[in-house]
Automatic annotation (TrEMBL):
CDD domains registered for this protein in UniProt: Cis_IPPS
Main function: Catalyzes the sequential condensation of isopentenyl diphosphate (IPP) with (2E,6E)-farnesyl diphosphate (E,E-FPP) to yield (2Z,6Z,10Z,14Z,18Z,22Z,26Z,30Z,34E,38E)-undecaprenyl diphosphate (di-trans,octa-cis-UPP). UPP is the precursor of glycosyl carrier lipid in the biosynthesis of bacterial cell wall polysaccharide components such as peptidoglycan and lipopolysaccharide.
Taxonomic lineage of the native organism: Bacteria, Pseudomonadati, Pseudomonadota, Gammaproteobacteria, Lysobacterales
EC number: 2.5.1.31
Protein name per UniProt: Ditrans,polycis-undecaprenyl-diphosphate synthase ((2E,6E)-farnesyl-diphosphate specific)
Gene Ontology biological process terms from the UniProt entry: cell wall organization; peptidoglycan biosynthetic process; polyprenol biosynthetic process; regulation of cell shape
Top enzyme class: transferase
Annotated HAMAP family: ISPT
Active site: 19, 67 (proton acceptor)
Recorded catalytic activity of this chain's protein: 8 isopentenyl diphosphate + (2E,6E)-farnesyl diphosphate = di-trans,octa-cis-undecaprenyl diphosphate + 8 diphosphate
InterPro entries: UPP_synth-like (IPR001441), UPP_synth-like_CS (IPR018520), UPP_synth-like_sf (IPR036424)
Cofactor note: Binds 2 magnesium ions per subunit.
Family: Belongs to the UPP synthase family.
Keywords of the record: Cell shape, Cell wall biogenesis/degradation, Magnesium, Metal-binding, Peptidoglycan synthesis, Transferase
Protein source organism: Arenimonas fontis
Length: 248
């Protein structure tokens, strides 16, 4: 029986929808922003876990393109939290070998955040201990549409033969280009949906859902997800017999 401690059964890329901050705070009769601050502590636990277990890539959905429609006060508090976190954590992440990347529509963010994102990416460029991608202002449909627009423009300019557009070319223009597709997707907070996260890359990803609210995340929960993952048979459209090398 495979166990999560076998390197072959560790995900190479973990993608997470961190849901439940608001409910966690409301249950304590505190403002939703209190939950987001607790959520930032859970992000640290998750990064420490990936570094300790040797999971090489972690992608976190921190702010969706739809989250802009939340009350201005909550959006403002999240922006301040992102900014403060970038100010206080990037040096330490760089020292620990974490490479930071951002995917999403940056133009929508205030200049001071865009500058911090660019600085964080430059300060951690080339670090491969853990590639940490923060999806902020991100939507899976937006990412695919943007990549298609880029390819269409190149084709219209005569620099690209439309016949050469295939799955791998399109994937190479998406935000997560260069990383393996996520092996394991986790969503906290009880809802069982993808919510416009990594629509292209989750095609063959193992999905794992938990009722636990994001700020309550701990190592034991992540261990449970990993050991469930290690027991799953990933067939990628083949049969079990084919996978075992036993023919069709
Ligand atoms: C979803 O919970 C969470 C968010 C929209 C924000 C995620 C932000 C963090 C985890 C904190 C900081 C992150 C970084 C990278 C510093 P929700 O508000 O939708 O919760 P609910 O479903 O209970 O309302």
């Amino acid at each position: 029986m495979p166990s999560s401690s076998d390197a072959g059964h560790l995900p190479r890329h973990l993608a997470i929808i961190m849901d439940g901050n608001g409910r966690w705070a409301e249950r304590r009769h505190r403002p939703r922003t209190f939950g987001h601050r607790a959520g930032a502590r859970a992000v640290r636990i998750c990064i420490d876990f990936c570094l300790a277990r040797g999971i090489p890539a972690l992608t976190l959905f921190a702010f969706s393109s739809e989250n802009w429609k939340r009350p201005a006060e909550e959006v403002g508090a999240l922006m301040r939290l992102f900014m403060r976190t970038l100010d206080t954590e990037v040096d330490e992440l760089a020292r620990r070998g974490v490479g930071l990347r951002f995917i999403g529509e940056r133009a929508a963010f205030p200049q001071e955040i865009r500058e911090r994102m660019a600085r964080a990416e430059a300060a951690t460029a080339g670090n491969t201990g853990l590639v940490l991608t923060l999806a902020i202002g991100y939507g899976g449909r937006w990412d695919i549409a943007r990549a298609c627009r880029e390819l269409a423009a190149e084709a219209a300019a005569g620099r690209l033969d439309p016949a050469s557009i295939d799955e791998s070319l399109l994937a190479s223009r998406l935000g997560l280009a260069g990383l393996p597709e996520p092996d394991l997707f986790i969503r906290t907070g009880g809802d069982m949906r993808i919510s416009n996260f990594l629509l292209w890359q989750l095609a063959y990803t193992e999905l794992w859902f938990t009722q636990t609210l994001w700020p309550d995340l701990d190592e034991a929960l992540l261990e449970r997800a990993l050991s469930d993952y290690a027991r799953r048979e990933r067939r990628f459209g083949l049969t079990s017999a084919q996978l075992a090398g036993g023919g069709t």
